[in-house]
Specification:
The complex is a heterotrimer of chains A (209), B (219) and C (311). Chain A has 209 residues and is mostly helical. Chain A contains 8 helices and no strands. In chain A, helix 2 packs antiparallel against helix 4, helix 3 packs across helix 4 and helix 4 packs antiparallel against helix 6. The longest helix of chain A has 41 residues. Chain A is elongated and about 65 Å long. Chain C has 2 domains: 165 residues, Periplasmic binding protein-like II (D-Maltodextrin-Binding Protein, domain 2, 3-Layer(aba) Sandwich); 94 residues, D-Maltodextrin-Binding Protein, domain 2 (3-Layer(aba) Sandwich), CATH 3.40.190. Chain C has a 5-stranded mixed beta sheet, sandwiched between helices. The radius of gyration of chain C is 23 Å and the shape is globular. The relative contact order of chain C is 0.16. About 3% of the residues of chain C have low confidence. The chains are: A mainly alpha (209), B mainly alpha (219), C alpha/beta (311). Chains in contact: A-B, A-C, B-C. Chains A and B meet through helix 3, helix 6, helix 7 and helix 8 of A and helix 3, helix 6, helix 7 and helix 8 of B.
Chain lengths: 209, 219, 311
């Protein structure tokens, strides 16, 4: 039975998997580009950091269906509103972990850097970020898993992806489509989690491991 | 209606459909809470049981982790195939997703009780049950509450999706809004209460959690 | 602090047990007298209105509670919901759809014949009762603006044929290639072609017509926007579209378990005509009222269709 499903829907499956990866990746990259520098900058302004992280935290609590649906009156339907919503979701884990990671860098190391004559920027780039990397990576990994999972729902607002198979299955009562969408999407989420977990281990300096 | 802007439409909507929204709101909340409570009923004892049992805890938390990674829409649909349409499926799904936060946090809370305190307790002649009731659980309460809080927020999100399998709740309003041609006001009418429910639940349980933490912070 | 902690814990336990006890209700564990009846509906406005009318009728006139199983995606899911026991009543079934879709029989153009066939087939095959129609058929219908109708003297779909080569038609993308009653079959029956056929989402055809982007569109005959845009529906004089008379379908089991149900449901036979359905749809789609609210208003206006009430 699985074989017939694959022959009938095989190309669909590939296209939709690609769509889901594609919008997730874009959202995640945008999230990293915004949240990492922001997290680093916020370490210099602890009071503002509290507020910003609280706001991002609040956005995270919003149920995914609500956030996705809210995109429609603002941005219409399709891949772009989905990416925007997923981007918003990706922010908190990365932001919080960057902030915490940077803050937790041993002050002795920061002082040594200053002592060696490094400018603040050099200190950040050459000392603090490398030390904070494992924590930041953990945040990115968490975001990635969230984003891949939510991208499934995003198909409802026209983003494509494996969620399409599930919705079609629900609407036409085709259990094979439902299963055909569920298994790949679960495998995808598990693979991303596992893959980034490995990356996280690789990037952890041996000293900390 | 088209000559009113979205805000005015929203106000008009709530004026005329207020009791309906309230009904959907409470149904939504109840579904979420049932699932979480069921998970707590099973998850907390389970978490206590696997504390100090490393191999077992790895397995159980590993399984709960895998459940967590399955996208909720997928899980919901699969369970629907088994349990049918309606609230039963959503409660079952919420239950499953609430397991990890609750079990893991209970486990962590128990594990984090300092050995010194446990030793004192044993020294005072406490039985295992007394130890649990008077030392370990009270000290783990904050962390367990954090797990319940996490679970409830996720539950509210899952219940919203539950509208796709006929369970009702605020998701119904959101879906009607997305299907309509100028549904902006409807989407807001559904999405805002849902978001508020999640945020208020998060803040309230966070408040309780912090109050449960305080005694430990005292020297 | 210790006191607060104990207080919170005991509150939590109390709330928990209360909810669990009262929780048996939503989980479907009730007693026979106040049995919960489950009504399924599609995600369309019309279906939800009808489901809410049934729901309000039942809860108002009997001791029963009702749960709505909403947002079903198609007639297939609706059918499955009754077969699998997820629902007891389906609020909106369309004769034409079920004839070819569920029953897999040949399409019939005669509305009365179609009714007889589905009624018998559903009883024989599924032990379900197909009730007489509410009084309207939700069918595909060609429509134009009032101006276009006046300009070309259009009353029927055949009239449209005279000027079809000048017109652009917006149609449901699902319908275009539909087997048996799609565009190719249409061309055969009516013997003409449009200048251009533009497939689109069915929900968008009404505004497209009103805005002048299309000259003629194929929409649903009960849509509220026909009223709000003041569109003219052309008569299907060659009876191309199958009869989509709308009815309630209930499992024989629930009718047996709740004997009061059948006469209650029969109160609605023929009570909702096309104009009424359009108005109800309009109230939801245009006036921002929830189907539940519109349904209740409707029943109150007609005194729940009690015997001796005004028609």
């Amino acid at each position: 039975m699985m074989l017939t499903f694959l022959t009938e829907h095989g190309s669909d499956l590939l296209i939709k998997t690609w769509e889901q990866l594609y919008i997730s990746a874009i959202a995640l990259v945008l999230g990293i580009i915004v949240a990492v520098p922001l997290g680093i900058a916020l370490t210099r302004f602890p009071k503002t950091a509290k507020v910003v992280i609280a706001i991002a935290s609040m956005l995270q609590t919003v149920p995914s269906l609500a956030l996705l649906a809210l995109m429609i009156p603002l941005f219409g339907i399709g891949k772009v509103p989905a990416i925007i919503a997923l981007f918003i979701y990706s922010l908190l884990p990365i932001l919080r972990n960057t902030y915490i990671g940077m803050n937790d860098v041993d002050p002795i190391l920061k002082d040594s850097a200053k002592g060696m004559g490094m400018t603040p920027v050099q200190s950040i780039m050459q000392v603090e970020i490398p030390m904070a990397t494992p924590v930041i990576m953990a945040g990115i990994r968490l975001s990635a898993v969230y984003v891949i999972a939510w991208a499934t729902l995003a198909s409802y607002i026209g983003a494509g992806g494996l969620g399409d198979l599930i919705f079609n299955g629900l609407n036409l009562f085709k259990p094979d489509l439902i299963i055909g969408g569920t298994i790949p999407v679960t495998l995808l989420a598990l693979l991303v989690d596992f893959g980034l977990g490995r990356l996280e281990k690789q990037l952890t300096p041996a000293a900390i491991r | 209606m088209t000559n009113l802007n979205t805000w005015q439409q929203l106000v008009y909507y709530f004026q005329h459909n207020g009791s309906y929204v309230l009904r959907q709101f409470s149904q939504h909340f109840l579904i979420s809470i049932y699932g979480v409570l069921l998970a707590a009923l099973i998850g907390i004892p389970l978490g206590i049981f696997i504390a100090h049992r490393k191999k077992l805890s790895n397995v159980i938390i590993g399984v709960a982790n895998v459940i967590q990674t399955v996208p909720s829409l997928a899980m919901l649909s699969i369970i629907m195939l088994g349990l049918g349409l309606g609230t039963r499926t959503v409660i079952a799904t919420v239950f499953l997703y609430s397991l990890l936060p609750i079990i893991k946090n209970t486990y962590t809370g128990m594990e984090n009780v300092s050995d010194n305190i446990i030793d004192s307790g044993i020294g005072m002649g406490m039985t295992n049950w007394q130890l649990l009731r008077m030392v370990e659980l009270p000290l783990s309460l904050a962390v367990i509450m954090a797990g319940i809080r996490n679970a409830l927020v996720v539950a509210i999100g899952i219940t919203a999706i539950g509208a796709f399998v006929g369970a009702g709740g605020l998701g119904d309003i959101i879906i009607r809004g997305t299907n309509a041609t100028n549904g902006g006001a409807l989407i807001l009418a559904g999405a805002l209460p849902t978001a508020l429910m999640a945020i208020i639940a998060d803040v309230t349980l966070g408040f309780i959690q912090r109050h449960l933490e305080a005694p430990q912070a005292r020297p | 602090m210790h006191k607060i902690r104990r207080f919170i814990t005991s509150c939590g336990l109390l709330v928990g047990s209360l909810l669990l006890l009262s929780g048996c209700q939503p989980l479907g564990i009730g007693n026979r007298q106040s049995q919960t009846i489950r009504i399924s509906s599609l995600s369309t406005t019309e279906s939800q209105i009808l489901a809410n009318i049934l729901s309000e009728l039942i809860t108002h006139e009997t001791q029963n509670k009702v749960t709505l199983i909403n947002n079903l995606g198609s007639s297939t899911v609706t059918h499955e919901s009754l077969i699998r026991g997820d629902a007891d009543i389906a609020a909106s079934r369309y004769a034409g759809t079920e004839l070819t879709g569920t029953l897999k029989m040949k399409p019939t153009k005669d509305p009365e014949k179609a009714q007889k066939i589905v009624k018998k087939a559903f009883k024989d095959r599924y032990n379900q009762t197909w009730f007489p129609s509410y009084g309207f058929a939700d069918t595909y219908a060609f429509m134009v603006t009032q101006e276009t109708a006046k300009k070309y003297h259009l009353e029927t779909v055949s009239d449209l044929g005279k000027v079809a080569d000048q017109l652009t038609a917006g149609v449901d993308s699902v319908w275009v290639n539909h087997e048996g009653d799609g565009y190719p079959a249409f061309k055969e029956t009516y013997g003409y072609d449009f200048k251009k056929v533009a497939p689109m989402q069915i929900g968008l055809v009404y505004s497209a017509l009103a805005a002048g982007k299309m000259d003629v569109v194929l929409g649903y005959s009960t849509d509220g926007r026909i009223k709000s845009y003041d569109l003219k529906v052309l008569k299907d004089d060659r009876r191309f579209f199958p009869p989509y008379d709308t009815s309630v379908v209930a499992t024989d089991q629930i009718l047996k378990e709740q004997p009061a149900l059948a006469p209650l449901l029969h109160r609605l036979d023929g009570k909702i005509d096309l104009d009424t359905m359009q108005t109800l749809n309009f109230k939801v789609d245009n006036d921002l009222l929830e189907p539940a609210v519109v349904a209740k208003q409707f029943l109150q206006e007609h005194d729940y269709f009690r015997k001796g009430a005004a028609k």
